[in-house]
Design brief:
It is built from 8 helices and 8 strands; from the N terminus they run H-E-H-E-H-E-H-E-H-E-H-E-H-E-H-E. The chain is an alpha/beta fold and 240 residues long. Helix 7 links the parallel strand 6 (165-172) and strand 7. Bound molecules: pyridoxal-5'-phosphate.
Length: 240
């Protein structure tokens, strides 16, 4: 990768960080409270490592095989944390857990059970989010919000903080119309309300809300996102 592209990447990353901090401030939230997951699904291993070099340590991939490929091609900085943001098939859980990912896309009881069993057999603590469908569209991913409570209650609380197993940390969702800011905002508000309802119903803490992408992260932050997943904005002028 040439120097011009590297500088553009650095500039884009800084601009995204600046915009996220501005959005936090505009919403009256503490600076730095929103974690930025740099989505690397569009780019190769070289560009992925270049993104780490310019300061992004939270990396999101949506396909397990690509995650495996990148991590076998390159030894990433120990500070890097991987986020699995796309559909995870149960037969891909074992290999994926070896990378200690935060899994945003748990969308069925069967997948949750597989991750729970495998995290115990690998003696790991695996953090995850329940992906909920708040768009009422059959085509979108995520579980019916009405099914989330049973999923959360199915996980027994750990006897110790470091006891192997899964930890449900919150919810993930995608807005159905990233091009319609008002509609996106209403959907993000629904996710936050669902989280509040689930906390009250289960008595469990669900601090994380993963919502917001390049086109709608400002709305997500104003509605309480703690993680935004930003891809395309980071690579403007860099990918081609
Ligand atoms: C691709 C992807 C993103 C990033 O979207 P951009 O619009 O490119 O920022 C975020 N979340 C998920 C689940 C994705 O698949």
């Amino acid at each position: 990768m040439n120097e011009t592209k590297r500088q553009r990447l650095a500039g884009n990353w800084q601009a995204v960080v600046g915009d996220v901090r501005d959005a936090e401030q505009a919403s009256g939230r503490p600076s730095g409270c929103v974690q930025i997951v740099g989505v690397t699904k569009y780019v190769n291993t070289e560009l992925t490592t270049a993104l780490v070099d310019v300061g992004c340590h939270e990396l999101g991939e949506n396909r397990p095989q690509v995650l495996w490929e990148k991590t076998s091609e390159h030894t990433f900085d120990a500070a890097v944390r991987w986020h699995m943001i796309g559909h995870l098939q149960r037969n891909k859980v074992r290999r994926t857990l070896k990378l200690n990912p935060l899994i945003h896309s748990v969308d069925s009881q069967r997948l949750l059970n597989t991750i729970a069993a495998e995290s115990e057999s690998q003696q790991r603590v695996i953090e995850l989010l329940i992906e909920v469908n708040i768009s009422d569209e059959a085509a979108k991913t995520g579980i019916d919000p009405a099914a989330a409570e049973a999923l959360i209650n199915s996980v027994t609380l750990p006897v110790r903080d470091d006891a192997p197993g899964v930890r449900i940390r919150g919810l993930m969702a995608m807005a159905s119309h990233a091009d319609d800011p008002d509609q996106a905002r209403q959907q993000f508000a629904k996710v936050r309300q669902l989280r509040d309802t689930l906390q009250a119903a289960t008595g469990r803490e669900l601090p994380e809300l993963s919502m917001g992408m390049s086109g709608d992260f400002r709305q997500a932050i104003s509605e309480g996102a703690t993680m935004v997943r930003i891809g395309s904005r980071i690579y403007e002028g860099v990918r081609e």
